[in-house]
Design goal:
The complex is a heterodimer of chains A (306) and B (363). Chain A has 306 residues and is an alpha+beta fold. Helices cover 61% and strands 16% of the residues of chain A. In chain A, a hairpin with a 2-residue loop joins strand 1 (74-86) and strand 2 (89-99). Chain A is rod-shaped and about 110 Å long. By secondary structure, chain B is of the alpha+beta class. Chain B has helices spanning 3-41, 65-71, 125-131, 171-178, 195-204, 236-241, 248-262, 266-276, 278-286, 291-316, 337-356, 359-362, and strands at 48-52, 63-64, 78-90, 93-100, 120-124, 138-143, 149-158, 166-170, 184-185, 187-192, 218-224, 227-233, 325-326, 329-330. In chain B, strand 11 and strand 12 (227-233) form a beta hairpin. In chain B, helix 1 runs antiparallel to helix 7, helix 1 runs antiparallel to helix 11 and helix 8 (266-276) crosses helix 11 (337-356). Chain B is elongated and about 85 Å long. Chain B starts with a helix and ends with a helix. The mean pLDDT of chain B is 85. Classes of the chains: A alpha+beta (306), B alpha+beta (363). Chains A and B meet through helix 2, strand 1, strand 2, helix 3 and strand 7 of A and helix 1, strand 6, strand 7, helix 4 and helix 7 of B.
Chain lengths: 306, 363
């Protein structure tokens, strides 16, 4: 057992040297390193952008919290839909709230949006003139009426008791969202590149096999069994695949660093954040698995070489 | 060379080059879709000129509509519409809310039921399906720009693009969500009825535009106090991306470069092609066929297979659903035929180098 193991190691060493000497290492490098470099570069850019936006978001949230009054999370209201008249134009389904206020008022945002400071609310058989801007910020998107203006039970058809959630959303959420969406598109490109390269592994492995055929023949003449040569060839190619994967990762890191530096000089300054090791290990597994399958296929196709 | 061998070469060529052709098309399609997304959102009808502020996106831009109208008051033959776009949360999903002037004739979809209803909305059919929104129900729309939520009654659906992934509301409601004043809009669409009106329009805005670009333009106006800065662009996307220092040429160059890197693997495929018929090559060489002729035949065979791969992928690209969405708009891959053709030239050149440098031809 140990003799066979030693023989595999020695044969692998010979084949690996042959791979290097015959320049076939260049093809493996091309096939393994290129898709991995693209994948790592895309991953790093996405990762850095996401962390950047997350940091920005946290900083902004802290500043925002310290600068503004705490916002009420929930408000109990009667949300009603009355017709309103704005500039002599009747509008239906105008969201009106019955709130705990002294007199009818127009929410600041409604006032800004409609550009009028006076509206008429058609409430059952009567009309209510509403003038003046509401002081309460949470009422800003509504036209508000005092809750005691009428019995809400009477307005069952037009009003409903609602708990309105007021969330603290910021523009940063938008950047997070856009980063997420763009990231998913870039990750899709990455996945397709990795998949598209899979068939190329077969000619690459085949190429290596033919380039080292002279050494393989010499080993056969020296009496090394086919199985040992096949296993050694697989081991040699896997060693080269791991080396190529490492080179691919390095190139990807440099490329992403460069891309982020260029992007930072012309637009938003996104600092480079290195990927965690586990992220790059996936690519090593990809390289090893793909080349293993490709080498087995190449050995089947080019059986005469052995 | 026998037809059988040629067919074998072509089929093998297709099998190997097709994944690369697909990857190239997807790379180009995704980059193009990302780049043209803003142009898709700011849906511009034929012969319309879009005017907006200099901002990073249509949903962050706000411009003074009154000021624009004032500048154009002496120009006849124009119809002007405006929209306010804002991002908001609907059922915990971020959705683009488009505030429109409901009576406008620029829309194919029927939005007339929004004209007399303030807190109503028309929901895009794809979005309604995704979020389970039903007709006559209420949706709570929470602004991203300020901590407010507005309930809106769903009064209709639309399946027109790009609105099918959006919520369309009266412009006043979008202004509330965006915290905009009654004279602010995100974009204005100007339709000029004749060439003379277009020229007068540009004159009123103090813009000199080359004649060929007259009807295909995006104008960005920025007011800094009394000072006005105006820029024009040939597309909506170009205008917004220019704020990031990225223009269309950069995008095209980057996508071609990335495609070329993706296509590098074709070198190895080129190298393996002669190996498939190495016995035939030996025979041909023995009977005195020059190497160059064999190489030419191989290059023609691989040309046929690569043309087929690129063409089939181009035809099939419409069927590929990439499964990615930007602000819930499911993006469709659109490949620019010129850019795609240029990537073919690069890919073919890489393959030919592989064929020419293969061991079988040089032995």
């Amino acid at each position: 057992m140990s003799k066979a193991f030693v023989q595999i190691l020695e044969t692998s060493k010979t084949i690996t040297l042959a791979i290097v000497r015959t320049n076939s290492i260049a093809w493996l490098l091309l096939v393994v390193a290129v898709p991995i470099a693209i994948a790592v570069a895309i991953d790093t850019i996405c990762y850095s952008s996401q962390l950047y936006v997350a940091d920005l978001s946290n900083t902004f949230a802290q500043v925002h919290e310290s600068m503004t009054m705490p916002i009420t999370k929930h408000e109990n209201i009667y949300l009603c839909y009355f017709n309103i008249v704005v500039n002599n134009k009747k509008l239906s389904y105008a969201a009106t709230v019955l709130a705990n206020i002294d007199k009818p008022c127009i929410g600041l945002d409604v006032y800004r949006s409609l550009g009028v400071g006076k509206v008429v609310v058609e409430l059952e058989s009567e009309t209510i003139n509403v003038e003046g801007v509401c002081k309460q910020s949470w009422l800003s998107p509504f036209i508000a009426l005092p809750i005691n203006i009428t019995n809400p039970m009477k307005l069952a058809n037009t009003c409903s008791f609602t708990q309105l959630s007021l969330s603290q959303n910021t523009l940063l959420k938008m950047s997070q969202l856009l980063t997420q969406d763009t990231t998913s598109a870039l990750l899709l490109i990455k996945n397709y590149v990795l998949i598209a390269y899979l068939p190329v592994f077969i000619p690459a492995a085949n190429n290596v096999l033919h380039r080292v055929s002279a050494v393989v023949k010499a080993l056969r003449i020296a009496g090394v069994p086919k199985t040992i040569i096949s296993l050694s060839l697989i081991i040699s190619e896997e060693v080269v695949a791991l080396l190529s994967a490492a080179i691919g990762v390095a190139v990807g890191v440099i490329a992403s660093h460069l891309a982020l530096t260029i992007a930072s000089s012309i637009a938003v300054e996104v600092p480079y954040r290195p990927l965690v090791l586990s992220n790059t290990l996936v690519y090593a597994i990809y390289a090893v698995a793909a080349l293993l399958v490709a080498t087995v296929v190449a050995l089947r196709i080019g059986e005469n070489v052995l | 060379m026998r037809i059988g061998i040629a067919a074998k070469l072509i089929l093998v060529g297709i099998a190997f080059s097709m994944p690369i052709a697909c990857a190239v098309a997807i790379v180009l399609g995704v980059i193009n879709a990302l780049y043209t997304f803003y142009g898709y959102v700011v849906y511009r009808n034929e012969n319309e000129i879009v005017v907006s502020n200099m901002a990073l996106a249509p949903f962050t831009a706000l411009m003074d509509f009154e000021s624009l109208m004032h500048r154009l008051k002496n120009v006849s033959g124009l119809s002007i519409d405006s929209e306010v776009m804002v991002l908001a949360l609907v059922n915990e999903k971020t959705v683009l809310i488009r505030g429109i002037e409901a009576n406008s004739s620029r829309y194919i979809s029927d939005f007339s039921n929004l004209s007399n209803c303030l807190y109503c909305c028309v929901v895009g059919s794809d979005l309604a399906k995704a979020l389970g929104i039903e007709l006559d129900s209420f949706v709570i729309v929470s602004s991203m720009f300020q901590p407010i939520s507005i309930p809106l009654k769903v009064v209709g659906y639309t399946n027109e693009k790009p609105y099918s992934y959006e919520v369309v509301v009266p412009i006043a409601v979008a202004r509330i969500l965006r915290r905009a004043t009654s004279n602010q809009v995100s974009v204005a669409y100007i339709h000029a009825w004749n060439r003379e009106s277009i020229e007068l329009l540009y004159k009123s805005l103090d813009i000199n535009i080359p004649r060929p670009l007259l009807e295909k333009i995006f104008i960005a106006i920025e007011y800094m106090g009394q000072e006005k800065k105006t820029k024009f662009y040939s597309s909506v996307s170009e205008a917004y991306f220019s704020r990031l220092g990225i223009n269309q040429t950069t995008i095209i160059a980057a996508s071609i470069a990335l495609s070329a890197i993706v296509a590098l693997g074709l070198y190895l495929i080129g190298q393996s092609i002669p190996h498939l018929i190495k016995n035939e090559i030996v025979v041909l060489r023995v009977i005195g066929v020059p190497k160059i002729l064999i190489a030419i035949i191989l290059c023609i065979a691989i040309l046929v297979s690569m043309v087929l791969s690129w063409l089939l992928t181009y035809i099939a690209i419409d069927l590929i659903k990439p499964g990615i969405a930007i602000i819930n708009h499911s993006i469709q891959l659109v490949v620019d035929p010129h850019v795609y053709a240029s990537t073919f030239v690069i890919a073919y050149a890489i393959t030919v180098v592989g064929i020419v440098r293969s061991g079988e031809l040089n032995e």
